[in-house]
Amino acid sequence: MKILITGSNGLIGSEAVRFFCDQGHYVYGIDNNMRAVFFGPEGDTQWCRTSLSENYNNYTHLDLDIRDREAILVLFGKHSFDAIIHCAAQPSHDKARDIPFLDFEVNALGTLNLLEATRNNCKDSPFIFMSTNKVYGDKPNTLNLTEKATRWDYADNQFKDGIPENFDVDQSKHSLFGASKLAADIMVQEYGRYFGMKTCCLRGGCLTGPAHSGVELHGFLSYLVKCNLEEREYTVFGYKGKQVRDNIHAVDVISFMQSFINKPTSASVYNLGGGLDNSISIIEAFEKVSSLTGKTMKWSYCDTPRIGDHICYYSDLKKIKKDYPEWSISMDLNTTILQIIEAWQSRLTNPS
């Protein structure tokens, strides 16, 4: 197979490159290191690009911008891709307010460019879009919550397994990032329904793993580990540090992508996170990481929460497990955190 992966130097993109290259497929990766533009030197992913290019002869890197419609159309005209995995994005809901045009152009317009190129050149190829749980806006915050010693949780038994795919995306505050990703999410669904293309939106929770270049504005668990190892102060924004996220390792995200490529459908939507079992609050993460590194967590508290931030969010995985029973979460939270610690220790010791 010939597979195109956008955002190929990012967390999910790079994991996808490794996975499909290891299977012997020919992989083309689009990444122009926009993460460094969004987040500065700490967001730079050049190290990952170098690693992939050096380790895989069946990987071709393309320094393209998905906003460049003509370049995307030319690329698709040269190659008939058997699958498209779209991971490129401006990923921070905080950063989006400072760069609204750039955020929308990357997240929404870039996605449209790829969809149209796919429709015109390889219409029957599966198109997988990494969406986000921010498409639900802050609507989850309107649910009845119960405050426990170290976390918030859902009080309503209806949500005991988490947020389902039919949860309302309307009449809520999304952040500009959430709005641009929702625009792309709906467009991906529409190309599936209107044109009969095999499209899938994966509404991710906290996607994580050892390849994550976590920064304060994006990459909660990776950034928290980095702060701990560098003995840097971590700032908690609101909700007493009891806000909850479900974390899913990148390898489990890619495992589902393979399942979808093997059995694609049209206009599919799935909430893809770690679920309740892999959920953790910030203060629970402080304790967990400190117990594994032996370093005390330094942190401060800001009473003002981030705009549109979820108080409690974890994914209901019943639909995805029903449609793809061969798929399951393979990486528990403890293993995931250990891998992130080891990766940061290596990168901080050998920054080149």
Layout of secondary structure:
Layout: E1 2-6, H1 11-22, E2 26-30, H2 34-39, H3 46-55, E3 59-62, H4 69-78, E4 83-86, H5 100-121, E5 127-132, E6 145-147, E7 152-154, H6 175-195, E8 199-204, E9 206-208, H7 220-230, E10 234-237, E11 244-249, H8 250-262, E12 268-272, E13 279-281, H9 282-293, E14 299-302, E15 312-313, H10 318-323, H11 333-349
Parallel strand pairs: 1-2, 1-4, 2-3, 4-5, 5-8, 8-12, 9-11, 10-14, 11-15
Antiparallel strand pairs: 6-7, 11-13
Helix pairs in contact: 1-8, 4-5, 5-6, 7-9, 7-11, 9-11
Q: What is the gist of this entry?
A:
The protein is of the alpha/beta class and 352 residues long. The chain is built from eleven helices and 15 strands. The longest helix has 22 residues, at 100-121.
Question: Key terms for this structure?
Answer:
alpha/beta; 11 helices; single chain; 15 strands; globular; 40% helix; 352 residues; seven-stranded parallel sheet; four-stranded mixed sheet
Integer-rounded radius of gyration: 19 Å
- Derived from helix and strand composition plus strand pairing, the structural class reads alpha/beta
Mean pLDDT: 95
Please estimate the helix content. Answer: 25-40%
Distance from N terminus to C terminus (CA atoms, Å) equals 33 Å
Q: Strand order, main sheet: write it out.
A: 3-2-1-4-5-8-12
Low-confidence stretches: none
Q: How much strand content do the residues show?
A: 15-25%
